[in-house]
Amino acid sequence: SGGIITMDPGYKNTGSCKSAITYLDGEEGVLMYRGYPIEQLAEKSNFEEVMYLLLKGELPTAEQAKKFKSDINEYDVVSEDVTKILNAFPSTAHPMGVLSTLTSSLTAFNPKAVNVKSEEDMYRAAVTLLAKFPVLAAWTLRKMKGLPLNYSDSKLGYVENFYSMMFKQPNKELEMDPIVIDALDKLLILHADHEQNCSTSTVRLVGSAHTGLFASISSGVSALWGPLHGGANQEVVEMLERIQEDGGNVQKWVDKAKDKNDDFRLMGFGHRVYKNFDPRARIIKKAADQILDKLGIQDPALDIAKKLEQAALEDEYFVSRKLYPNVDFYSGIIYKALGIPTEMFTVMFAVGRLPGWISQWIEMRTNNEPIGRPRQIYVGEPKRDYIDLGNR
Ligand code: SDX
């Protein structure tokens, strides 16, 4: 009941799995990647290290980190044929739809990466996608803005390169404020993996049919797009702007979210697993204050978010249902401060989640998991005989 699929001994892989990548305790609000607490990684690590950690299971030595980055650089050229697909989209196409299509098209251009078996082939497919995905993600922004495409610059760090491909203008120097790059790096770390969430489960299920990595990840992008999942970060900022336009009366909107006759939900609140504070939300809330302060930005949306959080956390409806802010509640406020358009917020989530999706896909294939085959509880008609047309 409630959509929870129990393990039926008669069927393997009906929706639960064993994984050694991420540990999550929803009651205690604990999140660890390969045993390292998210708070320590957000504070001390960087996204390139975390990508390696998720993929390989250990933090890299300096030598390993250097080799990892050069392996990624080797594959950062995206075929010009992909730009023909990109050009077929109108500038009004949603970036997540464009990203999902372009990611899947990589399968057509890299057929060898389809049914990879050896560890070496899986690693090559992984670094190929880690290299090309941020290029595609940046191109969705350039397309939306009608700007010329930028290409990867392997002299830059992974996050700087992504930022530069999004914002570098022709014949102009791009200012790379370290505060902005650090903030982006931290957000990508916080989104890098999250156990068996909707999009990761989708990637594992699609991949369990031995579908190629790129097409499996493309299905994860589509799942993440949903407003109840990764699409929530865009919905949160739009909600905060509506509350601001409406005079900032947060209690009115908290009451609206409680009204069962109204399908409005407090976006960025609640979680399938966390029945305590999402540890990522705590980190992002603190970072939002620091980053806006350092950048000298006054964003009324942040004040409204804090008041909304306060009002909800004092409200019996939310307290009794253990509804707390999740990763999406504050992240959009930082993305906005970094100059990232609202339509791109879920693309940012996808770039962050990519190493997690890839690591989980490789784990599933390395464990030779059988094809996913969730079962059901049948609630339809009992057996009955056919009725001829004339007797209906
Ligand atoms: C992500 O799974 C992951 O790990 C996901 C993620 C990741 O990193 O991959 O963490 C990323 O997707 C975070 C979630 C982002 N989505 C949102 O913020 C959308 C708003 N949140 C809700 O739609 C909701 O909380 C969900 C979708 C997140 C969870 O939905 P559920 O499982 O239906 O919520 P629930 O079973 O805990 O609900 C219990 C009650 C219900 O009311 P009653 O039937 O008991 O009267 O709480 C209510 C729900 O209606 N409720 C809300 C609410 N969330 C749940 N009421 C108002 N506002 C909300 N946000």
TrEMBL record:
InterPro entries: Citrate_synth-like_lrg_a-sub, Citrate_synth-like_sm_a-sub, Citrate_synthase, Citrate_synthase_AS, Citrate_synthase_bac-typ, Citrate_synthase_sf, Citrate_synthase_typ-I. Belongs to the citrate synthase family. This is Citrate synthase. Keywords: Acyltransferase, Transferase, Tricarboxylic acid cycle. The lineage of its organism: Bacteria, Pseudomonadati, Bacteroidota, Flavobacteriia, Flavobacteriales. Pfam families: Citrate_synt. It comes from the Bacteria. One of its GO terms (molecular function) is citrate synthase activity. PANTHER family: CITRATE SYNTHASE. It comes from Moheibacter stercoris. Pathway: Carbohydrate metabolism; tricarboxylic acid cycle; isocitrate from oxaloacetate: step 1/2.
